[in-house]
Design goal:
- Strands 5-4-1-6-9-10-11-12 form an eight-stranded mixed sheet, sandwiched between helices.
- The longest helix has 12 residues.
- With about 210 residues, the protein is α/β, with parallel strands linked by helices.
- It has one domain: Rossmann fold, CATH 3.40.50.
- A hairpin with a 4-residue loop joins strand 11 and strand 12.
- Helix content is about 25%, strand content about 30%.
- The chain contains five helices and twelve strands.
């Protein structure tokens, strides 16, 4: 089985020394990649900037921006049986990027933004029979309603819902507490535990 996973944040540069990003560490996506390799899958991991060691046995492609991640995922999507989009992709990018560092006294107090591509939505539109597409919903409120809406609107087979408002889980942490929802309206809740453990349990359900 061919498994394609995205992980980590993306960066959208304002100038050579400043960028827009988010606190994603990539730990969940890397854990999923290791779990998939352990199951004998052929794994490609598309990773944004992280401080993590590349999972042994996986092909790792490093990207930085949302558009770079879009290109890498799109190029490999057709050959993948299982696609897990766990990356935290920046929703917007600066309209223009300065080639030189902007001095603070020269910087504008407003930043013009444009929308980045919705990678998961695009993959959902391209999905063929036999492919399983999994997304993530990182929310701070209305966790399950928001996750169910994303599951439906983006044509996903499964979605992992996690509350990132708690400091002891989610972004940057080695631990998480999640719910796994399917398009058939199945719902499985997983108690607070290490992400490596969660990754193995998720893979047990996705690939029984």
């Amino acid at each position: 089985m061919n498994c394609l996973i995205s992980a980590g944040p993306t960066r959208e540069w304002i100038d050579p020394v400043r960028f827009l990003s988010n606190p994603s560490s990539g730990k969940m996506g890397y854990a999923l990649a290791r779990a998939a390799v352990d199951r004998g899958m052929q794994v490609t991991l598309v990773s944004g900037p992280t401080a993590l060691k590349a999972p042994a046995g996986a092909e790792v492609l490093f990207v930085e921006t949302a558009r770079e991640m879009q290109e890498a995922m799109s190029q490999r999507f057709a050959k993948a049986d299982l696609i897990i989009m766990s990356a935290a992709v920046s929703d917007h990018r600066p309209e223009t990027r300065s080639k030189q560092k902007q001095k603070k006294e020269q910087m504008r107090m407003t930043l013009d933004l444009v929308a980045n591509p919705d990678i998961l939505m695009e993959l959902g539109k391209q999905k063929k029979n036999g492919q399983t597409l999994v997304g993530f919903a990182a929310e701070t409120e209305n966790l399950l309603p928001n996750a169910r809406r994303k599951l439906r609107e983006k044509n996903l087979d499964w979605i992992v819902a996690n509350d990132v408002s708690e400091k002891d889980r989610g972004f940057q942490s080695d631990f998480n507490k999640i719910s796994l929802l399917s398009k058939e309206q199945n719902e499985m809740d997983f108690e607070y535990q290490e992400k490596n453990s969660l990754a193995r349990k998720i893979m047990d359900i996705l690939c029984p």
